[in-house]
Amino acid sequence: MITVHLPPSVRFILASASPRRRELLAQTGLSFEVITADVIEHEDSSTDPKEMVSYNAALKADWVGERNSDAWVLGADTIVFIDGSALNKPADRNEAAQMLRRLSGRTHTVYTGLALRKFDQKIAIDRGVASEVTFHQLTDEVISEYLSKVHTLDKAGGYAIQEHGEMIVAQQTGSFSNIVGLPLDETKQILTEVGLLD
Fold first, then answer.
1. Which sign does the torsion angle of CA 115, 172, 92, 154 carry?
2. Number of folded domains in the chain?
3. Which structural domain range is residue 66 located in?
4. Catalytic site residue 77?
5. Residue 25 has pLDDT above 60, yes or no
6. Annotated active-site residue in 77, 92, 140, 185
7. Phi-psi region of 4 (alpha: psi -120 to 50; beta: other; left: phi over 0)
8. 61 or 84: which carries more pLDDT confidence?
9. How far is Cα 118 from Cα 63, in angstroms, rounded to an integer?
10. CB-based contacts of 181: which residues, under 8 Å, 6+ apart?
11. What is the CATH number of the domain that holds 177?
12. pTM for this predicted structure
């Protein structure tokens, strides 16, 4: 992979603590730093999922961007959506197991909001991406085994498709990287639009 080293006068910041987003953004080849936004995300499960991820992505990007007005800042937020409500990060293993039982044998949607900011140029770009995931029918034994192998408490919906996904996922449509937490094609498109990538 070729790393795109920006000129010293150009800073790029990922406004996210997620190691998965960090790994995915690195695949673009862009050099960047990480600053975690000190914000309280909106996690009301009854909120429209597209609005929720858009709001949270912008919240993170705006918080970091306001404090680094010379930098390009990328914020992102991902949720799992089923039965008209959002499944956020589980509080504990029991809640993660409940989420997996709810998703078992069914299709759900994964939404990610993207927000790119550059405050000194008053640039604000917001995008949203959706993918669908269908789960196998999961027994309690499979759920227990999966949770013993994968730490899911920091993952929306209580699962990580990139970690032992074959145990739980029957099929997926749309962006795979979106399900992981950062839709790469759409991210690259935004970065190309503003001239950060060729």
1. negative
2. 1
3. 12-193
4. yes
5. yes
6. 77
7. beta
8. 61
9. 12
10. 18, 20, 21, 24, 76, 78, 112
11. 3.90.950.10
12. 0.91
